[in-house]
């Protein structure tokens, strides 16, 4: 399986420090400087026989000091030492951006929440963790289902049947689908079927 990670480092007093770990193996540890235009791009080839059912990519930003965020007199940030996650690909298939945003970043800071989500700008020291399986095609389709599931969380509606009963429905691939339809499968059921395969 080919894994490609693309990051955008931002420079302040120096480039950010990065430790990339895949399956508990450190594959890069040093200054995260652009090596592909303005991006830092890194590829690794994993032997399928060495992959587990659950694997992880850890993107760790470290060594940042408070003085690495430079502000003007009004407190506006002029330059910052940070890492921005742009993409993760498995066998040339990109993970949907909404799923990257849904993963956890564990910042190194005292007396704050253990992790944050919905942020691909790693301005704090900390670790971003992405879990993946051992089959890139299954991962691709599973990611599509997760993307649909996340996209439809706020898309649920109550509809009233002709008999007056109200049921939950959601939009799936442009169609309004009843969540309890007997002749079709709900998005949650479809997601669980794919997840529980094997």
What topology emerges from the helices and strands here?
Layout lengths: L1 E9 L6 E6 L2 E7 L8 E6 L9 E8 L7 E2 L5 E3 L2 E9 L2 E2 L2 H5 L2 E4 L13 E2 L3 E7 L3 H18 L3 E4 L5 E7 L2 E4 L8 H9 L3
Antiparallel strand pairs: 1-4, 1-8, 2-3, 2-5, 5-12, 6-7, 8-9, 8-11, 10-12, 13-14, 14-15
Helix pairs in contact: 2-3
Explain the overall architecture.
16% of the residues lie in helices and 40% in strands. The protein is of the alpha+beta class and 198 residues long. It folds into two domains: 133 residues, Lipoxygenase-1 (Sandwich), CATH 2.60.60; 57 residues, no CATH class. Strand 6 and strand 7 form a beta hairpin. The protein is globular. The two termini are 19 Å apart. The model has no long low-confidence stretch (mean pLDDT 85).
Summarize the structure in short.
By secondary structure, the chain is an alpha+beta fold. Helix content is 16%, strand content 40%.
Keywords:
alpha+beta, five-stranded antiparallel β-sheet, 198 residues, 2 domains, 3 helices
